[in-house]
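If you are new to this repository, start here. Below is one unmodified record pulled from the training split, so you can see the exact layout before writing a loader.
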Amino acid sequence: MDYPGPLDWLVLVCYLFFLMMGMMVKKIGWTALSAGLCVLIFEPFAWWPLALVAWLPFLFVLKTASPREGFYLGLFHGLLLFGGTLSWMWNIFGRASIALWAIVAIFTAMTALLIVRLPTKSKWQGAVLVAAVWAGVEYFRAEVFTLTFPWITPGTGVPPNWLTPIVGVYGITFCVVLGNALLLTRWKQGLAILLFLGLAVLTFSEAPDPEDKIRVGLVQDESAIIRQLKEASEPILDKVDAVVWPEYSLGRFEESTLEVGRGIAAQTGLFVASGLEEIDGQDHNTAFVISAAGIEGRHVKNHPVHFFTDGVAGKLAEPVATQLGKVGTPVCFDCDHQDVIRKMTAKGAEFFLIPSLDAMAWSARQHEQHGALFQHRAAENGRWLAVASSSGVTQIIDPRGQVRARLPLMAEGILVGEIGRTDQRTVFQWGGWLLGPAMMGVTGVAILWLIRRKYSKLA
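And here is the target side for that same chain:
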């Protein structure tokens, strides 16, 4: 439960602040209850059924809130939720993490403000509009905003299910919020939606075992010392078809590094790892796909981690053709977002070998929350993922987002397992992913309509 001490003070200050704003204690209490339930949805608790009802108390409060109250209650909800779930940020950023929680919480505040201001005369129309705005703001925050951060959403709180390869995590967010909103107006319809979503999770079992198998060896080691990683890999070189090392395991990529990779690939078939590569005078965090003949292809990380020296962002997301098939090699934070794996799959990626990094000092909670996002990407795109992380989660995930094998956190080790390749496309791939951008467009139209209405009244 690695909560930082200052978080308690932050919560107390928030309570006092809202009391000073003259809000009713009952509204604050319902908001706090909702945020508390939401915290329990995510790792390390992972009580996912709460995701079906956790937002209900907050939406209940917003029904009678003024715009000003809605904004501040939304900010309060966001601070509690993100401060509680992302408490591990304190280990990395210290006091600055409070500002980061506040930035993310502002999006919850803006969502609440829009929900309060938008017309909801029709019970169904109002619920749909609430769900669309919530999903639209979430998509903007997670995929478009400068500080993109796709963690901790209703859609990622629900495990992969039958709807995931159809509408993706932003579509799941829409369904969760729609069900909660309808519980307040048409409770039978709302309950039906949420029960359907729950059954979609419970009946979504593992994918069939692959017929065309690829044996992979995933190294979990935080040292980033090539000699140590090479020695750790040697016992499995004659047992696997591909070896994957964690992110940054190659350090700064040089000719000698290439020779190490070629040597490993000569005994296995394929070697994947990442390191810094200088291109046009700038550093790029690059995943290399290496065979005995040399570099078969590379991928420059599209989503460098904010506030870290993580290289210049790449623009392309393409698979690499190898003797094992077309492989996608997104790097770590690339997989938090929906676009990179989706684009690689659309261009023919049949399976994924992924270098990742989660430092031991960032805590087990951070590792588990991050590891869960890879499951959603696998289910959205219907692909096998093999992830090698520095201190966890090193895991193999099937096309339904089910973890088939993993290593314990915070320990050096090697995971040997089997994955498959496929060229089948999901509905999400064919266009279901557009639901997120569409909801963002609906939100934009709603904002413009509110602005126009305000100025027409002033005129």
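Two things worth knowing about this chain: The mean pLDDT is 93. The chain has 16 helices and twelve strands.
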